[in-house]
């Protein structure tokens, strides 16, 4: 029998609906909630058999088996908490929340109610990340000591500076909103969470552009074009821009690993480059999609040298959304709703990415000092790491 899935927020991430709506194959979207008239109209056209409403209470009472929260970031917490309180399993798009307090409240509500919580960190399903993690776990570079990530956000002007993403009140900052993915991957590859951060950043380009307009009712696809170049020639930016377009973060992890993350929103290319250095070598990716290369160096060389081994990022089982990761992400969520158990994604890890992004933002907007990252209570961590069951309840099915 198909699971009945509700969708809250039929905007940019509504592409995930294609993976959740598989009538006769395990799940179907039966209800959609959105405050936007345009979004509701698009939902009715895409899902003619689903009920469409602007009332969250109505959606939660519609008999759904799970809900996917795909709203703008600042709306994640109230929607997710309401669903968890109603006993409806939740898929919450990343970042989990825009404050540490809200992220912790979501986790605490999930535990108190016993309602299943899943967070949409799809990069844990990306082939390039899985390949690099496998090489690390196989011991191919020894013990990890450093992780560096450079994120070239070539579409930054169109993706993040023409709508709500550009406002602190709705994102905290792009170091959290965009960086949550990479911060989570850094933790996953390094095998620990960040305890201290130090950051610098600035609004270097888009703050100087005075061509602004209110794009309420528009969608990113309405204005996106690779011809919107160079960044200084962008037009129609959001009336409010108070987030950084370049950020650099240094991190100390709980196991002693040192990490760094750099994010720039006015590069010509759009991809992520990870370098992981261990006691016996290093790995680095060149490209982050199927067919890209991951190099491994494990011998000494004079100067720059070709990799000692090269690995090709394999094709994903599904050639859709984020190099197939979106399909795998939703499939894991649906399995989790049905059966429970441990998942590749982690609500605790999602919270830690939020905490690091926020504290790093505090650092770069302050005096660039080193700040501690607030830690979760141990029993809350244990609950989620056990597959969202209390320690006395045994192993989940």
From TrEMBL:
Gfo/Idh/MocA-like oxidoreductase N-terminal domain ranges (all copies): 3-121
Family matches, as Gene3D superfamilies: Dihydrodipicolinate Reductase, domain 2, NAD(P)-binding Rossmann-like Domain
Superkingdom of this protein's organism: Bacteria
InterPro entries xref list: Gfo/Idh/MocA-like_OxRdtase_N, Gfo/Idh/MocA_oxidoreduct, GFO_IDH_MocA-like_dom, NAD(P)-bd_dom_sf
Residue intervals of the GFO/IDH/MocA-like oxidoreductase domain: 130-284
Tagged with keyword Plastid: no
Name of the featured protein: Gfo/Idh/MocA family protein
Keyword terms of this UniProt record: NAD
